[in-house]
Write a structure and sequence with these properties.
By secondary structure, the protein is mainly alpha-helical. It is built from five helices and two strands; from the N terminus they run E-E-H-H-H-H-H.
Length: 120
């Protein structure tokens, strides 16, 4: 653990990320929560996955598009077999994000006619 990685203990054994990481990651986690019903608290593991993708140059909107694409377009939200995969580890992992990102961008543009956020 580096000096810059500040951890906060939450209830139980879950370790929360520092406030700055949580601030960056929570909008993405809230978006994912709309599809899977999980109330994310901002654990270190989840925030680290999301912040790593943000640090690679992806935007929070692009990460939210991935959640939307998998939940709605691919139908994972209503597929009992795929629903458990609507989670940060599957969607935002370093090896898995590339499986969904380009298709999510393309489908979003096709459906909404823009790359901009239409949820506002």
């Amino acid at each position: 653990m580096t000096e810059n990685t500040k951890l906060k203990r939450g209830r139980g054994a879950k370790v929360k990320a520092d406030a700055a990481s949580r601030e960056r990651a929570m909008p993405v986690l809230h978006s994912l929560s709309r599809y899977n019903g999980v109330s994310y608290s901002g654990t270190l593991k989840h925030c680290s996955l999301i912040c790593a993708r943000l640090d690679e140059g992806l935007s929070a909107l692009e990460l939210r598009k991935v959640a939307w694409y998998c939940a709605v377009v691919l139908g994972w939200k209503s597929d009992a077999k795929m629903f458990p995969y609507l989670r940060p580890e599957t969607l935002y992992g370093p090896e898995t994000i590339s499986r969904y990102l380009d298709a999510a961008r393309t489908e979003y543009r096709k459906r909404f006619g823009t790359d901009e956020d239409v949820s506002k």
